[in-house]
Amino acid sequence: MAKQKFYVVWNGAEDGVYTTWDACRQAVEGFSGAKFQSFKTEAEAEEAFEMGYEEYQKSKEVKEPEEVEGVEASKGFSLPPAAINEAIAVDAACSGNPGKMEYRGVYLRTGKEIFHYGPVWGTNNIGEFLAIVHGLALLKQRGLDTMPIYSDSVNAQLWVKRKKCKTTLERNAKSEALYQLIERAENWLKAHPYKNPIIKWPTEIWGEVPADFNRKRKKK
Q1: Coil, helix or strand for 45?
Q2: What are the backbone dihedrals phi and psi of residue 64, each rounded to the nearest 5 degrees, phi first?
Q3: In the chain, at which residue ranges do the beta strands (DSSP E only) sit?
Q4: Is the peptide bond before 210 cis (omega within 30 degrees of 0)?
Q5: pLDDT digit string (tens) for 77-94?
Q6: Beta-carbon count within 10 A of 94 CB
Q7: CA 59/CA 134 separation, integer angstroms
Q8: Which pLDDT score is estimated for 32?
Q9: At 166, phi and psi to the nearest 5?
Q10: DSSP per-residue codes, 92-134
Q11: Does the structure show a pLDDT above 70 at 44?
């Protein structure tokens, strides 16, 4: 007997997670630009749907931290002796505030970038918040439920703890796509308990967080 599959429709007549191919087919058949995929488990399907099509596709290209251990560290990359190297660090940068914003995550054992998003119109604090949630989702997907995440943003850590991005950025046509991403991140936090410690990177002692974009900016 064939095992049941679960189907995610990201772009169809009605988006969602389906438990049968017939239901999925009805949602995508004849729909221009349909985006859908099958999964072995309901949990995987729900996770992929919440991430959204583009973020899910990006996540498939990211290697697990264990797999990049052997990659040579970036030239000049080093960690403070007290830092945990089996961890990831996240950071954001923004050209203007608001302005073109991007964020990324770095695996500390090697200094290798493991995810990157942007640039999009936003603020630095939003980027810091989304970077932490992106890191949490990626680590949960990889089964690394106890790996720490370093962030140098106190605001972002509080927002993650409260499961709410308390931005004052105006919601308009320019920021609508980012607001939808924020809502997905907030919903992910509400639906997924996590154990990963989120640790404040002590910039005043250790210098810039390893995920820093090497751009001067004011943090709150």
Answers
A1: helix
A2: -65, 150
A3: 6-11, 16-18, 35-39, 88-96, 99-107, 112-122, 149-151, 198-200
A4: no
A5: 678 888 998 999 999 999
A6: 24
A7: 10
A8: 79
A9: -90, 55
A10: EEEEETTEEEEEEEEETTTTEEEEEEEEEEE-HHHHHHHHHHH
A11: yes
Q: Which helix (H) or strand (E) holds 61?
A: helix 53-61
Owner of token pair 């997907």: 141
Tokens of 135: 């890191």
Does the bond joining 119 to the residue before it have cis omega, within 30 degrees of 0?
yes
Cβ neighbours, 10 Å, residue 76: 6
Tokens of 89: 């660090």
| Number of other residues whose CB lies within 10 A of the CB of residue 218 | 6
Residue with the bigger pLDDT between 51 and 139: it is 139
As a dihedral over the C-alpha atoms of residue 78, residue 125, residue 44, residue 138, rounded to 10 degrees, the angle is 0
Question: In angstroms, what is the C-alpha Rg of the chain?
Answer: 18
Q: What single letter denotes the amino acid at residue 217?
A: R
pLDDT in tens, 127-172: 999 999 999 999 998 899 899 999 999 999 999 999 999 999 999 9
d(CA 122, CA 205): 29
For β-strands 16-18 and 88-96, DSSP reports them as unpaired
Strands annotated E in 22-111: 35-39, 88-96, 99-107
- Where does residue 31 rank: exposed (0-12), middle (13-18), buried (19+ CB within 10 A)? middle
Q: Are 44 and 6 spatial neighbours (Cβ–Cβ below 8 Å)?
A: yes
